[in-house]
Amino acid sequence: MSHYSSHGRGDDRWGGGGSSYGGGGSSSRWDSGGFGGGGGGGFNSRGGRDDLDRMALPRPDFSNLPKFEKCFYLEHPAVSARTSDDVERYRRGKQIHVYGDGVPKPVTTFEEASFPEYVLEEVLRAGFKEPTPIQCQGWPMALLGRDLIGLAETGSGKTLAYLLPAVVHINAQPYLQPGDGPIVLVLAPTRELAVQIQQECQRFGASSRIKNTVVYGGAPKGPQARDLRGGVEIVIATPGRLIDMLDSRITNLRRVTYLVLDEADRMLDMGFEPQIRKIVDQIRPDRQTLLWSATWPKEVQAIARDFLKDPYQVIIGSPELKANHNIRQVVEMVEGYAKYGRLRKLLDGEMDGRRILIFLETKRGCDELVRQLRTDGYPALGLHGDKSQQERDWVLQEFKNGTHPIMLATDVAARGLGNVASRRALEKNTPQHSPAQAPRSRRV
């Protein structure tokens, strides 16, 4: 039985640039011809990043804001019964480090998180065996309504750590009215990560008919604008396109009470800090803010101090956040002229059915190496920010299904592919999804 029934609004709320990959006439069986497509996208339709940084958005009036509910956590009896020694032993075993006043005890099962039944049914239907460490500690923190800093390796399960509490948060708020913007805003650094987050939103928000849309550059604005004007509870966005939508008055952030900054370190690396600050200035100051990052540099600490109030902090793994110890790393120092020959030897030794990901520094270098490898018969494709969204989606799908098991990419793919790998690990031995049960309520 859910411990959240008292928080709903009655039972109905709780129910239910077009380059070819031909590459010189390779006879490889993977050489299926070129893939056409337009060029990549820039940051928005109006101009480049400098234009976005100069764009002035009027600051909303935050006086006389209506109150909203954001604390939904009721501790499960099994969690309450655990002693401090039990909790410390569990955290130590899972490498969970916590900081802050009044940190809640972690949960150890999905049932202990005391989610509403419709959320729990979706989680169990997905076939997950048990929560990841970031979910065990992050769910109670987020459901308490406090601001939260989560530091964990990419692919640790943090998307569900903030998404399931977001579903609960939305269902406790008044329904959207015409002209309202979203209730939950998730900012992400790249299109790929934004699309992956949306897939999880579709999956776990369907039972309560929570609508969402993804907003990013490099794709037509029309469909995104129609979704925003029609009203959606969750918006997942890259900063540039969202600012464009705000400046065009296609949407607003007056209703946002749950803000997520995903991969904050990556967004700062990409130079999005001015745009993030511009966006956050549009959101009511008493919101709940959750900041997620794989590393904890001074720049991320600075925006955490500016955006979050009295936050909890949870770190999974070493507090120093060193390199992932689950990955064997081999470093070879090779002269520039010898790189390609060494790469071919490595590929010949590694191509045993596994997928291979190669990162490069520049887009031009990525395209050149793809052409060279395909000329020599290797099943390689490239991914970087100058490719159209259609082409990027196609390349990712070809890599995921193994049709082209070698993918070359700039760092645009670094985080998103880690999330794909994590989700596949979580869903190992997952049964075929059955159709979702018809919800007992319909959101408007």
From TrEMBL:
Ranges for the Helicase ATP-binding domain?
Answer: 139-314
What keywords would UniProt list here? ATP-binding, Helicase, Hydrolase, Nucleotide-binding
Which Gene3D superfamilies does this entry report, sorted A to Z? Answer: P-loop containing nucleotide triphosphate hydrolases (3.40.50.300)
Q: Write down the Pfam families for this protein, in alphabetical order.
A: DEAD (PF00270), Helicase_C (PF00271)
Q: Where is this motif: Q motif?
A: 108-136
> Which EC class does it fall in?
hydrolase
- Gene Ontology molecular-function annotations: ATP binding; hydrolase activity; nucleic acid binding; RNA helicase activity
Taxonomically, the superkingdom here is: Eukaryota
* Boundaries of every Helicase C-terminal domain copy: 342-444
Enzyme Commission number(s) of this protein:
3.6.4.13
What family does the Swiss-Prot or TrEMBL record give for this protein? Answer: Belongs to the DEAD box helicase family.
**Name recorded for this polypeptide:** RNA helicase
